[in-house]
Each structure stands twice: as structure tokens, then as C-alpha cells.
Amino acid sequence: MASLLKELRGLTDEDFKAALNDAAGPPSPAARKKAPKKSAKPRKDSPVARVAKVLRETRGLADHDAQVWLRAALQRDGVDVARIPATSDEPLEIWLEVLFETVRSADALAVAQSG
Amino acid sequence: MTTPVIAFLTMKGGVGKTTLAANITRALADQKKRKILLIDADAQCNLSQVFIESDAIEDAARSLYHAFDTKGRPLLAGDLKTTIYPREGRTAPTGSLIDFVMGSFDTFELNATANTARRAGAAQRFKSFIDQAKNEYDLIVIDTNPSATFVTMQALANANFLVAPITFDAFSLQGIHLVVRHLKDTFSWLDNPTRLCLVANKVPRSPSDGELRRLEREEEKIKERYPKLARSIKLERIHSSNLIANRAVAKGFFADNNGVEGGFYDNVVQDFTAVAKAIDMDLDYAFDTAKSKKPDTSTGPGWGTLREWLGISAQRT
Hints:
The complex is a heterodimer.
Chain A: H1 2-9, H2 13-24, H3 29-34, H4 47-58, H5 63-76, H6 92-99, H7 105-113
Helix pairs in contact in A: 4-6, 4-7
Chain B: E1 5-8, H1 17-31, E2 35-41, H2 46-51, H3 54-59, H4 65-68, H5 77-80, E3 82-85, E4 97-101, H6 107-112, H7 116-136, E5 139-144, H8 150-158, E6 161-166, H9 170-183, E7 196-200, H10 209-225, H11 242-245, H12 264-287, H13 303-310
Parallel strand pairs in B: 1-5, 1-6, 2-4, 2-5, 6-7
Antiparallel strand pairs in B: 3-4
């Protein structure tokens, strides 16, 4: 018990949670079955699909150029640069998914449509 | 940090306000640990009927009416609430809690009275009730009646954020336009688009390309007519669903039925989750809600208390 406490004291917050999750074991088959399916392609009217469509079709930008352009445009719009992910070689939809974790999709669409 | 007080309001009925108020509140509770007070401020008690049997609402000794009552000592949320999430004996995965204050048909009396002194006293009592609740809860959500009643005005007087469900038709937008146009002088925060969140409801789930273009045109028309509200319209939407349309099924939270009925609830719950995430970001922008200031009242030890029990410091030393 004493050695366990000593070991636990040395853990960071994240390590501590991870250790508890490991101790709980893998999710049951029922829990796995309940997990929502992640669709590879976003819905046609999803925020990601709508912003990607404007950048590609209206602005005629390739995936990487679209990321660079939107990054700069959002900063000009006053969005804190710390909220905007760095550009990547991933498809535009993946980058937008990450972007919308910290930037409002309505702001991104407004910026993409303006100017 | 200011405690967000969200009013679900639009002057157009039938747009899904009550269903959204209930299920978005639940989705907000499932986003992160929060202590939420949900209030039914509609004398029709539609939200109350989602959680409580009709007979119990009629016979209730304590309801929202008593938060306005000037007789006796001022009542607190703790005097009127019923915990609706998590269910008794269970723990929410996030550690969240939703307390509910049921509506009352008796509030009709407050809406109908012409006695200004009575109304002034009732308004003061309700303000004290909300002010106290702000100290105890991370978030307060008020579902209102779609008309300019005394109780609805008191909800707006004490709120600081508006969620308005809309459908893509002229009358629905007129509903929110009426609120902003006629009430922004009384409640200045309504003139701030960052405090307004318009959520499209009943959007076709699998639109054809033609239908998609029509929806986009409708949205553009709204933006042209009300440019100030352009960024308040969320891209995250609630799609049409027979499960939502059929109120007989809509008892309790949709999230509690997840995984049954062939997975149709999954789609509905995913929509509510996406909208709640968007509202959560709005609240973070508007109120810096990233950190909770409220004491931990969940059942079972949270991370902090478990660490204290084990004598573990938060950081590696």
C-alpha cells in the first residue's frame, strides 16, 4: 500500500487518470456497440462541409492553400492566433474539424464568404 | 466569472423551443462538469410535462410561482428544485447535475394582474432568487413562453444569453426579430449579437442538392435582412425527426434512450451534442466559462477530492 501511494504521488494529472482508466479495463462489448459511429465523410450540410465548399468552389483554393488563406483571414477578423491550428497536409475537412474545436464555425463561414 | 443565464425564447410557437431547452441543457451537462438549474417559466408547463407527470404538476406544493411569491421568507433554488439528472442512485459521466424548477399554472395570475405594486414585489423576489442561484450553479437555463408576459419579461431581465430556435420561414425569423427590435432598449444585452444564438430546427436530415440550395438561399435571405444576426445563426443544426415530432415518445431526455429504437436516437442526440458544443464555445467567448467556480456537490469523489483522500499533489514534484 505504501509503495502504491508513493508511486501515485509521482504521477501527473493525466498519468493518474490514464492509470485509473487502464485499471478499469477495456470497455464491454455492449459499451463498444453503443459508441457513435464516426462517418468518414461529413454530412452535406455540416459546418465542415459548408466551409470547405466555399473555400474550394467559391474561392477556388486547394486544400493546403485554403488552410493558409483561412488562417490569415481569421486572424484579420480578430480571432486569437492561439485558437487556430497550424496548417497540415491532412485533407481540408480534417483540419476544419480541428479548427472548430476552438473557433466558431459561424465565424469561419462568415470570414470565408466575405471579401 | 459571470454565471451564464440562458433564456430559450422566440415569439413564434411550435419551433421546438421546449424540446431544445431540455435536450440542449442535457447535452451541455454531458459536455463537461456543470451544476445546472433548469427553470420552466412557461405557464403552459410543457417542459415540466417532459419530466414530471401532469397530476404531480397540478398538485405540486412548490413551483416557479413560489420564486415570485412575496409572502413569507424569500425561497431559494434549494427549496423548489427537483434533481432530474442524474437519476437517483446514479452518477453522470461528467459529474454534472441538473436541478429543475417546475412551471406553474398559477403564474398566469402574475401575468394577468394589473396591480403594479404586486408585480414590482414579485419581480424583486424573482431577481433575488436568480441572484442566489447564480452563486450556487454554473449555468441557469430558463424556458419561456412565446409571448411578452410578465414572467417572460422577468426571465429576460435576469438572463444574459438568448437561444432562439428558428425554422427557415418568414414567421420564425419575425419571432426573433420582434424580441431584438422591441426589447433591446429595455434589455441592452439583446443588442449584442455575441449573446444571441439562433439554432435552426426541423432541417431535412438528408436533403437533395436542390433542397440544400433552397436552405442556403433561405439562410442568406435571413442574413441579408438581419445582417447583425448573421454570425448568431449556428451552422450546427437540429434535423427533422419523427422522434422529436412525436411528443408521446419525448418523455425525459433523448440521451437516456440512446442506443435503442434502431439507433435513431443516436442521430438526434448527436445533433443536440453538436449544438451544445457550439453554445458552449459561445459561452466561453462571452463569459470565460472555462473554469468552474462552484463547489463540488456531485456524489462520489471528484478528481480533486480523490487526490486529497490519497494525499496526492496535482503536479509532479
